[in-house]
Amino acid sequence: MSLIHKIGLTLIKSVGDVIARNLLDQFGSAEAIFKADKYQLMEISGIGEVVATQILNHDVFEIAEKQLAFINKHRIQVLFYTDENYPWRLRNCHDAPVLLYYKGNADLNHFRIISIVGTRRATEYGRKLCRELAETLAPYRVIIVSGLAYGIDVAAHKESLQQNIPTVGVLAHGLDRIYPALHKPVAQKMLLNGGLLTEFLPDTIPDKENFPKRNRIIAGIADATIVVEATTKGGALITADIANSYNRDVYAYPGRTNDQYSAGCNFLIKTNRASLISHAKDLIYYLGWDEIVSEKSSSQLQLPVGLSDEEQKIVNILTATPIGIDEIGQQLNFSQSKLAMHLLSLEMQGILVALPGKFYKLN
User: Fold this and answer.
1) Cβ(239)–Cβ(219) under 8 Å?
2) For residues 325 and 358, is the Cβ–Cβ distance under 8 A?
3) pLDDT tens digit string along 279-299?
4) What CA–CA distance (Å, rounded) separates 224 from 113?
5) Are 15 and 30 in contact (CB under 8 A)?
6) Mind listing the pLDDT tens digit for each residue in 124-139?
C-alpha cells in the first residue's frame, strides 16, 4: 500500500479514525479508497456527499508528499493500522489512530508494556514511587510508557532510563519538536533505549485538544495503566477513564485524604475505577508476571483430542497475536457467559494464555 495514500487518508477533513477504519474494512486499502467513486463511498456508514467529495479531492497528496520527505530524511517509522508491526493492543481499541509515527528501538508489541501517568506537579512522594516502580520492574523485561510531560511522566521516563528499562514517550505533537523543550535531553536518551511515538504529523504544535488524543494511545498501547499521583482534574484521570473504557487494568497508589495530589488516585480507588496498589510488587502479583521468562518452543502446538465444536471454533480464530474477548465474541456470536466458560476450559487445558485486559492467544 502506498505510503502517500496512507498519509493522505489521515489528511482528509471530516474523516476521523473510526470512519477511516470503516473505509479500510470495506475497500481493503488506502489506495482503493481514493479510487472508489462517490456512490461507493456514500454506502459507508458516516459518509455523506460532502465527505465523499472531500475524499475524491486529491489535494491531500501534495501535503503528504512533503511530509514523506521529512519522514524519510529523519528515518521515522510509519505504522499503519493494517501493518503487522502496528501495536496490537492499540489496534483492538475502537478509536485507535489509523497512522502512527515512531522513532526508537523499543518493540511496541513487546509482551509486557505498562503506562505510568500522574500529575504535572509531582511531589517527592510521587517521584519516590516512580523510582520504586522502576527498580522493582527492571528484572521483568517490561517497557514503560508515559507522556513526557512535567511531573510524574518525566519522572517515570528518567527512572526507567536509570534502570535500563526501555521507555516510550507518547507525544501530543509532531516528531519535529519536543514539548516541553526542557525534556529534550531525556527524549534523546529515550531514542537510544525506548522511543518517541505520535499520531501527529511534523509541524503539528501541542495544541490543547491534542492531549486527550495522546492519552488514548497511552491507555491503549499498554496492558495496564498505573496512576501514581493525580488531582481530581487533569490528564491522568482522563487516561484512566479511557483505559477503563478499553477494558484494561488500572491501578492507583493511595494517598492521604487531605493531599490534593492524591485526591484523584483516592477517587479512582473509591469508585472502583482502579485497583489499589501500595507497592510495585502488588502490580506484579495482579498481572501474574513471572520474573524468569523462558523462551517457548517454536514447535507446532499439538491440540488435545476431544474439544467441543465451540471450543474448536475459538481455537481456530486464536493466533500467537493476542485477541480481545470482545472481538472473539463478535466473530463467533457467542454470549459473554458461554464464551467465558469455554475460554476458561481452554486455559485450564493449556491451549490458550489469558493476558491482562482480557486478551487471549494460543499457548
Assistant:
1) yes
2) yes
3) 999 999 998 886 544 444 334
4) 7
5) no
6) 999 999 999 999 999 9
Distance CA 77, CA 197 (A): 9
DSSP state of 202: T
Residue 80: strand pairing partners: 99
Instruction: Evaluate the CA torsion angle 109, 110, 112, 115 in order and state its sign.
Output: negative
Q: Is 266 left (phi over 0), alpha (psi -120 to 50) or beta?
A: alpha
On whether the pTM is more than 0.70, the answer is yes
- Contact residues for 131 (Cβ-Cβ < 8 A; gap 6+): 155, 159, 162
What's the rounded Cα separation, in Å, for the pair 174 and 196? 10
> How far is it, in rounded angstroms, from Cα 207 to Cα 200?
11
Element (H, E) at 100: strand 99-104
Beta sheet of 359-362, edge-to-edge order: 323-324, 359-362, 352-355
Amino acid (one-letter) located at 89: R
- pLDDT tens sequence across 35-49: 998 888 998 888 888
CA distance 287 to 354: 10
DSSP 16-56: -HHHHHHHHHHHSSHHHHHHS-HHHHTTSTT--HHHHHHHH
pLDDT of amino acid 1: 53
CA–CA separation, 206 vs 160, rounded Å? 24
